[in-house]
Amino acid sequence: MVFSIIPCVYRIIKGPTIPDRVVALDAMTLVIVATLGVYSFIQESVFFMDVALVLSIIAFVGTVTISKYLDEGVVF
Q1: How far apart are CA 47 and CA 62, in angstroms?
Q2: High-pLDDT (> 70) share of the chain, %
Q3: Is it the case that residue 55 has pLDDT exceeding 80?
Q4: CB distance 23 to 64 below 8 Å
Q5: Which side of the chain, N or C, has fewer Cβ within a 10 Å radius?
Q6: Are 18 and 70 in contact (CB under 8 A)?
Q7: Structure pTM?
Q8: Are 1 and 34 in contact (CB under 8 A)?
Q9: What CA–CA distance (Å, rounded) separates 1 from 51?
Q10: Would you kindly state where each structural domain of the chain is located, as residue ranges?
Q11: What does DSSP assign to residue 33?
Q12: Measuring CA to CA, how many Å separate 36 from each of 18, 22, 49, 50, 75?
């Protein structure tokens, strides 16, 4: 899963447009959440699943907010 983050980081740094960077950041967050889920399963700890859930909620809200700002120019 670590190798899946490398193209995302590249696209975040070299992305030609802001939407490309937003999608890459969202994909990177998805890989991190999946990694936390696997790690939580291996460690048999619910704590990491809580962290994964909060991280995915924050990523979703951030993606929607940035998309709305890029589309309309305002957040509210």
Answers
A1: 23
A2: 100
A3: yes
A4: no
A5: C
A6: yes
A7: 0.85
A8: yes
A9: 18
A10: 2-72
A11: H
A12: 27, 21, 7, 9, 30
